[in-house]
Amino acid sequence: MLRSRCVYHFCLLLTGQLLCSWAVPISVDKTKVSPPEEKVPEPPQSVDTGLHYDRYLREVIDFLEKDQHFREKLHNTDMEDIKQGKLAKELDFVSHHVRTKLDELKRQEVSRLRTLIKAKQDLEGGNDKAVDHQALLKQFEYLNHMNPHTFEVEDLDRLIKSATNDLENYDKERHEEFKRYEMMKEHERREHLKTLDEEGRKKEEEHYEEMKKKHADHPKINHPGSQDQLKEVWEEADGLDPEDFNPKTFFNLHDTNGDGFFDDQELEALFTKELEKIYDPTNEEDDMVEMEEERLRMREHVMNEVDTNKDRLVSLEEFMVATKKKEFLEPDSWETLEQNQAYTEEELREFEEHLAREEKNLNEKAVDLQKQREELERQQEQLNAQKLELQQAVEQMERLKLQKVEPPAEDKGIDGENALPAAPDNNQILLPGQQQDTPTNL
């Protein structure tokens, strides 16, 4: 199930969990039933709101619920006062232990955000840049970034307002996301057709029309929240006689957590039978993403019709009032998604133009990156060549050093001077002008 099934569970305080911790009693005949012992029901199990600060939100809620004073004030504060921040002022009166724990939770959250900011900067290649955490923390409006150490009244006020606003906008964002999904699916289908020859396109179009026809061929869909729709659940899911249908009993049967309200999860569970008429995960023609969008549309419709105080919950009183209306007894037919295309041709054209621009930008970046890569490879080749030349020069010098031979030493005398030539043999005395081998006549 998509996360939209549990989003508004927190919407009463800090988007709902706090206020849901007190059950609204079901009307009973006190003359016939002994009053039960007063008990504080356990709060419903925490669910993921889908917010990026969901864990911080739930931890703050959990600790505030432990303070008796805060719980009592919460019980006597209406939804509008909560949204306007009046309840946040009661933070000054909670116990020291709770305040200390809230301080710790805030410091942990600020540390988490700083880590995320640093990680994002690293991914974007900004390792050499100084990080201005104070400036970047401004984007997180659910806490007071100017005081990262203690949890104050302003922090609780910001958390309430941010969570309420974010969750109220969730359905709108979800619809936009679904519209983009549908347009991308159609865009890819049309692009695929362009790759086929005429015969292939014809076969593909025929198959597409056949799948659309098969998907649209389903039993009648009851109007969500109508008597017919609830009676069908009463009979097929609950196994009860439709002639015995009783709205109050039905409400009690399907208020699964017993808190006296239908939340979004409990409401959406009522539409399962209707959705099974349209969607089958084993069928090629049925898209499960579209099924979840249909579930969301049904839940939104019932909330808009029945939730009169707009707290994103349906109380027993609101439910009983709705069962008296003409829309409940004689509803209009329900138009499913295939009867309400999520986008217009103009929106699809703009979407495809946007995709084309993005593709062009990506291609330009790819070309730039390729040029940078080629330049880096060229520089690397130059460095490798220089390195090789240097290595060859060093090797040549080593060879010269090893092969270098000193010139032969000359004979020297005792005193180190060059020795005289040896005296001629046979005591011959050479006269001036005579050669050594010429004999002298006596």
Automatic annotation (TrEMBL):
Region named Disordered: 403-442
Subcellular locations according to the entry: Cytoplasm; Golgi apparatus; Membrane; Secreted
Pfam families found in the cross-reference section: EF-hand_7, NUCB1_N
Keywords: Calcium, Coiled coil, Cytoplasm, DNA-binding, Golgi apparatus, Guanine-nucleotide releasing factor, Membrane, Metal-binding, Phosphoprotein, Repeat, Secreted, Signal
Signal peptide as annotated in the record: 1-23
Coiled coil region boundaries: 153-180, 341-403
A GO MF term: guanyl-nucleotide exchange factor activity
Ranges where the EF-hand domain occurs: 242-277, 294-329
Name of the protein in its database record: EF-hand domain-containing protein
One cellular component (GO) term of this entry: membrane
Polar residues bias locations: 425-442
Membrane topology term: Peripheral membrane protein
Assigned protein family: Belongs to the nucleobindin family.
UniProt source species: Megalops atlanticus
SUPFAM superfamilies the record matches: EF-hand
UniProt-listed InterPro entries: EF-hand-dom_pair (IPR011992), EF_Hand_1_Ca_BS (IPR018247), EF_hand_dom (IPR002048), NUCB1_N (IPR057576), Nucleobindin (IPR040250)
Compositional bias of kind Basic and acidic residues: 403-415
Primary site of residence: cytoplasm
Domain of life where this protein originates: Eukaryota
